[in-house]
Amino acid sequence: MVSTVKQTKNTRILWADYAKCFGIIAVVAGHAINDVAGQGLDIAYNAIYWWHMPLFFMIGGFFLKKINFNIKGWRYLLGHKIKPLLIAYLLNGSILIILSHFFRQQSWDYTFAYFGRLIYGGSTLNNYLSVFWYMTTYMLAIFMTTILLSAIKSIWWQFLIAGGLFMLGIAFQDITFFGHTDFPWNAQISLLAVFWMLLGHYLFKVFPKIKWSYKITYAIVASLFFIGLIYLYTQDKLNFVLWLKSSNIQSGFQALIIPPILCLLVFIICEGLEHLGEFAPLIFIGKHTDTIMFYHRAAFDITTLMVFTNNWYFRIIIGLAAPILLALILQKIKGTPNYMKLQQYLSIHQQQYLKIGMPIVASLMLISLAGVVYLYHQTNQIVKHYTMSSTPTIYMHGWASSIRSEQGLVKTATEQQIATEEMIIHVDHHNQLQIQGHLTGQKNNPIILVQFDNNQVGEVRYAQGLYRIVKYLQQKYNITEFNAVGHSMGAYAWVYYGIHWGANPQLPQVNKMALLAGPYNGILNKGHRNQPTSGKLAKLWTDQSHQNQLQEDGRPKIIHDEYQALLKYKNDFPTNTRVLNIYGNLKDGSQSDGLVTIQSVKSLRYLVSNNAKSYQEFVVNGNTGQHSRLHTDNPTVSHELNNYLWHH
């Protein structure tokens, strides 16, 4: 994405710029719809991944040059080709780590440890830096491809070696790096990239010599081929997956053949656009793919500020628009006289500043690296005490809430690398599933966050949505079990799910339920602005402090309608599910967490304890036991929750 597409200093090759433009749009779109549920977007997601990253590796090979193995040659390769990429990687990565710290409210321990992950690179990078695996892979591929071109004269031998490296990279999918599933810098993927880069290098030489009539014929055939692939995929007759970052590649032969065919089709389409003239917006995007690549994931977070923008199509728009605006601003700054004067001044005094600055920078880097290594080691020590598996844990928010409440619960687990946030599933206003991310199958305790865009539909609709989500995960990823976490109405929804579908042997089994502040037998009437005043949901807000009591077996003396809905199916609760009931007690005389009484939340025991594999309770006393604070940066709850779900 950061390759140069220049033929001379002043003349750019438009079709290459157009290709980069379409490639980066595909990158942003792919991340925005990231395995979105629904056949259309699911097909689009995989079809994009069949070609968009190989396209950039092929473009990266366009202007590679052979070197002599002397000081001048190594200086060109390392200083001219690799050094700028490495600086861009470290500089932009550092900026994004700091941005993520403040925007996502991450701890400083996590932020400093993330610098260690930036150095290690590869699949350890996620969220804002998730695409940075490409940069390190790209650097390694440039280095290896240049060496291959320079050391081996025969083109046939070059491709034979590159093909061997390609198949070796495919084989490394099932191999760990000294016990780690993540290779440093995603080095195994660079073995594949060498082939694509070498192919791009020679394709660029012959591409202008091919007759346009031949290109049109090829474009027609390749388009039909692409349509045929899509058709086969929709009929489940093609299982071609090319997820390079997670090293999930189905069929090495297909990965060798399909991407180059589709990339050449893109190049021909772009040359056709070049024949039609110059399109300034496409050229601008093509020239600034690096800025878009670095910052589009951070721009996605802007969409979470307002509910109506938190959709995949808005993510595409903002993921492109925000980095393009940044590129425009930077371009304007670079064109100012003051910037030029600064550049001239620094150029004149470069040696002087290097003598003073280099020792200082080196010392700071060594100190920072030591701190990062220490924190990274501490994180690894923490992880050793937890069981790492591919079993997903699904988090469900409460009434009128959102995934923000769930992110508070998962914050500690993700920061300490006990678990990994892999998916966000939206249930939209039309009850359709819209999905960001995908389950990688890695043993990293994957987390799935659920967001009901209509977050006031109530506990029954919540439960029905959870059922559809579980079915989707079963059909898409063949999961056989999962953990469930719910807060408030989300906790009630999981219990409702359990008694209606949890014991169904045809569905994935619920391994553990961790339920926080569930209003199983009523909610205190606090006169909330969004509290329903009519209909079935209004009956939930009828509980009062000191009104109810629990009998010796846990059965409440007063049974409200919402409890009765669960009570008549209590014997259907699954027998293989462990349950943790977390609740708060403000200790202010209300016998509640401010919204749900202790009697209401503890009435869960009577519903599930006879059937559940195990049942336990955990109380949080004082101000941190307040209903909403149970899921908001609450170390006590996080520690208990993480230990329950994943500790040995």
Topology:
Blueprint: H1 14-33, H2 39-49, H3 52-60, H4 71-103, H5 108-120, H6 133-151, H7 155-171, H8 187-206, H9 212-234, E1 242-243, E2 248-249, H10 252-276, H11 280-287, H12 289-300, H13 312-334, H14 337-348, H15 350-383, E3 393-396, H16 403-415, E4 420-427, E5 433-437, E6 446-452, H17 459-477, E7 481-487, H18 489-502, E8 509-516, H19 561-567, E9 578-585, H20 598-602, H21 604-608, E10 614-621, H22 635-646
Parallel strand pairs: 3-6, 3-7, 4-6, 7-8, 8-9, 9-10
Antiparallel strand pairs: 1-2, 4-5
Organism: Weissella sagaensis
Transmembrane segments: 12-33, 48-64, 85-103, 131-152, 159-179, 185-204, 216-233, 253-270, 312-333, 353-376
InterPro entries: AB_hydrolase_fold, Acyl_transf_3_dom, DUF915_hydro-like
